[in-house]
Every structure is written in C-alpha cells, then in structure tokens.
Design goal:
alpha/beta; Rossmann fold; 2 domains; six-stranded mixed beta sheet; three-stranded mixed beta sheet; globular; binds guanosine-5'-triphosphate; binds magnesium ion
C-alpha cells in the first residue's frame, strides 16, 4: 500500500476544515464562519485499496493573543514535519504575509506545495485568474487548484494532484483502513457542541469557550447514548449569554448538537449541557495542558 502524510495549512477561515471534510466525505472537523475555529490538528484518513493518505487539518495561522493561541500555532507547526506534501489553502486574492511565509517555509524544506484557491464559488473568474498569476510568480507549486470545498468542486482534481506526491513504493500503514479520523468519539462530541456555540453566538463569547465531556455512556438496556457535557466560559456575563432567556439559547445549542451526535453515532442521544465559568482559562497553562491532552 502506498501511504503518505499531507498537511492542510493556511490563515484562519479560508476553509481548511471544510476541505478536509470534503476530501474524507464525512464531517470530522468542525466548521464555522468565525476565524480560529480549529484548535487541534486533526487527521482525516483517506483510504483506497492501494492507497492511504493522512490529511492533517491545522489551526489557522494568526498572531496569537493568548496562550491558547500560542498552543494552536504549535499544533499547526507540529503538523508540518515529516510530510510528503502541503496543501496551502488561501482565498483567491493577492498573497498576504501569512501565505508568503508559509510557502517559504515549505520551500526551504523542499516540501512540495499544492495551492488551493478556495471559495471559487463566490469569486469572479477574473479574480481567480489574477490570483493564480500572482501566486505562480512566487514559487513553483506542484499545482494550483481553484476549488470550492463547500460545493465539493474540483476536490477530485485536487486528490489526483495529491496522489502524485505520494511515493510509488509501499509504505508503512499508520492507521487502520476502516477509520476516517484519529479523534476519539468523545473529542468529536465535545467539538460538535463547540461548533454549535460558535455558530449560535457572536465572536467574543465562543472564542473563550471550551467543552468537556463529563460522561459518555452507552446504555445497554436501550439504544441510547447518554452524554453529559460541561461548557466552560470565561465570564459570568458570557454564561448568561450562553444560557439565554429562559435557557432558550442553551436549549437550541444542545438540540442542534444532539442531532449531529445522533448522525455521528448512528444512535439516539440524550445530551445534557452545563455551563461553568473559569476566568481567563485561555492563559492558564494547567488548564490548557489538560485541554490538549484530551
Ligand atoms: N462560499 C464558500 N464558503 C466556504 C468554502 N469553504 C469554506 N467556506 C466557509 O468559510 C468559513 C470557514 O470555513 P472553515 O472550514 O471553518 O475554515 P478554516 O480554514 O478551517 O478556519 P479555522 O479553523 O478557523 O482556521 C465557513 O463559513 C465555511 O462554510 C467555499 O468553498 N465556498
Ligand atoms: Mg478549521
């Protein structure tokens, strides 16, 4: 079996996680319209009879404002070693500093780069053509692929390009061939809940949220999974916003998360969520250590 590792990198909000999900064909990474949605590196495992490619989605590269941000950048950087190729995702416009730095970094290590100019579905053709020209002047890419991760346009063409970067000889198989991600179900459950919070609330609140699964129990008497989760936020005022008037916001978040969890687990889910305040956890080393151990 031919095997390889490919990192997906870029600035926040360009559609890296959407692209990972489109490649794998399943929802394994959460997606939102807020930057800095992804906090951990996430492996998506693409399996075919003769081929296994591990795609690693990474947190968006940004100038960190707290220890959580620093940890996120570290995660992204850890995913850039020992890879067969990189997918740099960008929006189809002039390359910025983040893109230029990223490209130089891979070039310096002789790592082939595929540039994905994403969100082609909402970008005029002339603008895409212009961006291709500007990027092509920067370096020799293995290929430049305009795509829409959202609409799954050109994702197959991207996969063909990625396959060219994988060594022709047999390699070590890193993951079982029947799993789609390296994440535990518990981790995915906490992420799905965090996604609903990112989607339901305005920017400031969800950035200060962490979700922990307190218990995860598959009942043996009924086909039900009982999940209890704790939503940690940074301020009392945020707690109020998350819960909402008469508990309405929290109810909505939990009900959307439950629906997603039911399709993930293919089982009925009973979900209860609690909200707790932990001041300034984003700068708390001990808290973050636990966060990244999960
Ligand atoms: N129109 C359009 N929107 C897209 C496309 N791909 C992603 N998006 C949207 O862009 C936003 C960000 O998508 P994500 O996949 O979370 O972006 P990301 O790069 O993983 O972001 P971080 O995890 O914050 O670094 C979401 O609202 C997506 O729905 C696309 O091809 N077209
Ligand atoms: Mg992401």
């Amino acid at each position: 079996m031919r095997t390889g590792f490919i990192t997906i990198a870029g600035r926040p909000n360009v559609g890296k996680s959407t692209l990972l999900n489109a490649i794998i064909g399943e929802k394994i990474a959460i997606v939102s319209d807020k930057p800095q949605t992804t906090r951990n590196k996430i492996a998506g495992i693409y399996n075919r009879d003769d081929l296994q490619i591990v795609f690693v989605d990474t947190p968006g590269l940004h100038a960190p404002k707290n220890k959580l941000g620093e940890r996120m950048i570290r995660e992204a950087e850890e995913a850039m070693d020992g890879i067969d190729g990189a997918i740099v995702v960008a929006e189809p416009r002039s390359p910025g500093k983040t893109e230029k730095n990223l490209i130089s970094r891979f070039q310096a290590e002789d790592i082939p780069i595929i540039l994905v100019l994403n969100k082609a579905d909402i970008t005029p053709k002339e603008q895409i053509a212009k961006a291709i020209g500007q990027y092509a002047a920067l370096c020799e890419f293995a290929s430049i692929v305009p795509a829409s991760a959202l609409k799954k346009d050109n994702v197959d063409a991207l996969l063909d390009e990625v396959e060219k970067l994988i060594a022709p000889e047999d390699g070590a198989v890193y993951y079982p061939t029947d799993i789609a991600t390296d994440q535990t179900v518990r981790k995915m459950a906490s992420e799905f809940i965090r996604e609903k919070i990112l989607r339901a609330l305005s920017a400031e609140v969800p950035h200060g949220i962490a979700v922990h699964i307190l218990s995860f129990r598959e009942r043996s008497d009924k086909p039900i999974t009982e999940i209890s989760a704790e939503i940690v936020c940074e301020k009392d005022s945020h707690k109020g916003i998350i819960i909402g008037k008469n508990g309405r916001t929290l109810k909505k978040i939990a009900s959307l998360a439950r629906a997603d969890l039911e399709s993930l687990l293919d089982r009925k889910v009973f979900l209860e969520c609690f909200v707790k305040v932990r001041t300034a956890w984003r700068d708390d080393e001990r808290f973050l250590e636990n966060e990244y151990e999960q």
